[in-house]
């Protein structure tokens, strides 16, 4: 057991994996999470991809590690990375991810019946159908990534004979969702509408429709990607009684002062500018990933970088990552696939590696 304490801000997949890897290297770790539970984006994985029993198994493994959990505390309000360094932590990892939904910035966006994808998916896992009831006869999902497909496929399970439409401003070749997710959506009856851009959401007290404009390709932009232009006089209205917005997320760094000078990934999470992800503040690191799998990988790399930094600081060799499971590790990948339009998991027991659960009590090895 080492004396070099490390603090991690963020209990999502990046922070969880970093905490795990640092703890098995012998570092005492404190993980700060502003929610009352850990898991972050893992909590939004639909239960037809990941079953609850896997999460319980993971939690049991975590309890054997030297990790202190601090739940319900917000960075920038209750503490800062600098204040944690002042308390005696020798390194701090900012792993807050990108969880603040991007806005559409169109009229009617805040009508009842308009939801952002991640809160919608979280609610579906907590009480499938309980919070939203039966979604009605027509649901529109705006977006084209894996989160959009998760939302569309989850909504499909609630419509009971209704219709789920996925609206995207570009074409099918530009979708960021994996082929497995796209195929699953098609098999389950999600209808795809391409080359439509949202212009306004209609309704009085509740959403009644989505106004879209047709789009077409214009000249390439500065990065060589084909730009989009709207077609004049091409407005049309898609009647619906629920809209799920899945156009990406950004990080909430309002509680961090400018000294950290984060750079931001194209998908919104903060990173340190140095190759080892250290920020401009000595001992403060930052990283993340675009999916659960990528975020967990980033957490593992950050843990190795932090251990190397502390080893150099204290004149020792970096610690290799031991195998805590005697030859096999929990696979971090949640295998995608089609499980039918039910909540039955595609692969029961898959997806070990992180958990959504009330933060467990402090444990030591």
Structure, described:
- This protein has 365 residues and is an alpha/beta fold.
- It has two domains: 6-99 and 251-358, FAD/NAD(P)-binding domain (3-Layer(bba) Sandwich), CATH 3.50.50.60; 101-248, FAD/NAD(P)-binding domain (3-Layer(bba) Sandwich), CATH 3.50.50.60.
- 22% of the residues lie in helices and 24% in strands.
- It is built from seven helices and 20 strands.
- The strands form six sheets. The protein has a five-stranded parallel sheet with strand order 4-2-1-5-19.
- Helix 4 crosses helix 5 (146-156) and helix 5 packs parallel to helix 6 (179-187).
- The radius of gyration is 22 Å and the shape is elongated.
- The N and C termini lie close together (9 Å).
- Kindly identify the CATH topology of the largest domain: FAD/NAD(P)-binding domain
Helix content: 10-25%
Percent range for β-strand residues: 15-25%
Largest sheet: 5 strands, parallel
Instruction: Using the CA coordinates, give the radius of gyration.
Output: 22 Å
Number of helix segments? 7
Poorly predicted spans: 324-340, 346-365
CATH architecture of the largest domain: 3-Layer(bba) Sandwich
Please write the string of helix (H) and strand (E) elements.
EHEEHEHEEEHEHEHEEEEEEEEEEHE
Shape descriptor reads elongated
Total count of strands: 20
CATH secondary-structure class of the largest domain: Alpha Beta
Distance between the termini: 9 Å
- Mean pLDDT across every amino acid position: 83
Count of all domains: 2
């Amino acid at each position: 057991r080492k004396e070099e304490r490390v603090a991690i801000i963020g209990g999502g997949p990046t922070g969880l994996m970093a905490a795990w890897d640092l703890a098995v290297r012998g570092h005492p770790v404190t993980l700060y999470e502003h929610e009352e539970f850990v898991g972050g984006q893992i909590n939004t994985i639909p239960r037809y991809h990941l079953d609850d029993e896997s999460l319980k198994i993971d939690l049991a493994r975590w309890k054997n590690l030297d990790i202190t959990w601090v739940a319900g505390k917000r960075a920038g309000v209750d503490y800062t990375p600098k204040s944690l360094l002042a308390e005696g932590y020798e390194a701090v990892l900012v792993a807050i991810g990108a969880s603040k939904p991007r806005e559409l910035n169109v009229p009617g966006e805040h009508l009842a019946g308009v939801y952002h994808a991640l809160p919608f998916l979280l609610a579906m896992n907590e009480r499938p159908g309980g919070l939203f009831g039966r979604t009605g006869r027509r649901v529109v999902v705006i977006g084209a990534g894996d989160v959009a497909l998760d939302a569309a496929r989850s909504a499909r399970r609630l419509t009971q004979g209704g219709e789920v439409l996925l609206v995207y401003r570009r074409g099918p070749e530009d979708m960021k969702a994996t082929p497995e997710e796209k195929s699953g959506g098609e098999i389950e009856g999600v209808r795809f509408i391409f080359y439509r851009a949202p212009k306004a959401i209609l309704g009085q007290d509740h959403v009644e429709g989505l106004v879209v404009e047709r789009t077409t390709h214009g000249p390439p932009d500065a990065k060589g990607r084909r730009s989009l232009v709207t077609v004049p006089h091409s407005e049309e209205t898609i009647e619906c009684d629920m809209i799920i917005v899945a156009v990406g997320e950004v990080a909430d760094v309002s509680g961090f002062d400018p000294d950290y000078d984060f750079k931001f990934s194209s998908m919104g999470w903060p990173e340190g500018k140095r190759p080892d992800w250290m920020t401009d503040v000595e001992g403060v690191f930052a990283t993340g990933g675009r999916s659960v799998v990528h975020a967990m990988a980033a957490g593992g790399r950050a843990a190795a970088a932090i251990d190397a930094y502390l080893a150099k600081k204290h004149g020792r060799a970096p610690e290799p990552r031991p195998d805590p499971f005697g030859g096999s590790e929990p696979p971090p990948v949640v295998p995608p696939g089609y499980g039918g339009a039910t909540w039955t998991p595609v692969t029961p027991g898959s997806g070990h590696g992180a958990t959504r659960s009330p933060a467990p009590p402090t444990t030591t090895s």
